[in-house]
Backbone:
């Protein structure tokens, strides 16, 4: 709501003074929603994405993504992949990140079916039952691959320089799964409360936004069925400031 404690005086008919008091009025709310801090949101798939820099092998990366209610990223269409390639990921100079390019574990595996003069095989989505339909083209084989392994793991390489990034240039690598690399996690969009906590489906919460007195239900990652509490202004205080994080909490600014 919006408080305005000023009274306005207008002259009515007959010279009487008419007093208009502006009281609490419910206002439309814009939610800052869907992804926790550090994640990038893509409306096309209602998903959130995050790059993890702590170099891990493929299997450890899988577990890290699962701990944040996600999985290693797979892609449903070219548009989603272009969104990923265009992002300016917040990367630092680390052992696992080259200055001009970036390689991340993603959620595909390359199954080798023939090891004759050239390696033959096919890509699979790493998680059975996934609804993802996009499969990468033929890969570049990484130098660390083992002659004994018949399953290699996918790395997506994209570029640091803005010109290359915005043109969508990228490469796919099939690499030894036990090599350490940065990785890209993907999760469904979610509800995030005003204190940046993740909210489970069906629970009440106060969304991130401008009104700490709003209570909503989390439904499909969106705040729905919202109810607002309207606060009385603090007594005995002419000038005050509302707390942006706590409902009906004020700081008096009077001398």
Residues:
């Amino acid at each position: 709501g919006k408080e305005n404690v000023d009274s306005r005086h207008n002259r009515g008919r007959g010279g009487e003074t008419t007093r208009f008091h502006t009281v609490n009025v419910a206002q439309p709310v814009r939610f800052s929603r869907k992804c926790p801090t550090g994640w990038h949101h893509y409306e096309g798939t209602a998903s959130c994405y995050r790059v993890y820099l702590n170099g891990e092998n493929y299997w450890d990366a899988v577990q890290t993504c699962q701990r944040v209610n996600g999985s290693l990223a797979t892609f449903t269409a070219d548009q989603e992949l272009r969104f990923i390639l265009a992002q300016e990921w917040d990367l630092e100079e680390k052992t696992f990140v080259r200055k001009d390019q970036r390689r991340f574990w993603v959620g595909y595996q390359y199954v080798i079916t023939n090891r004759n003069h050239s390696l033959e095989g096919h890509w699979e989505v790493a998680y059975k039952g996934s609804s993802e339909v996009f499969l990468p083209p033929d890969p570049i084989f990484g130098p660390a691959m083992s002659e004994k392994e018949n399953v290699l793991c996918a790395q997506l390489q994209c570029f640091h320089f803005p010109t290359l990034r915005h043109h969508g240039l990228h490469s796919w690598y099939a690499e030894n799964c036990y090599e350490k690399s940065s990785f890209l996690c993907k999760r469904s969009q979610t509800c995030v409360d005003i204190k940046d906590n993740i909210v489970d489906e069906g629970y009440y919460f106060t969304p991130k936004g401008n009104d700490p007195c709003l209570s909503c239900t989390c439904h499909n990652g969106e705040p729905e069925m919202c109810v607002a509490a309207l606060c009385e202004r603090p007594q005995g205080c002419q000038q005050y400031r509302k707390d942006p994080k706590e409902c009906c909490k004020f700081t008096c600014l009077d001398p």
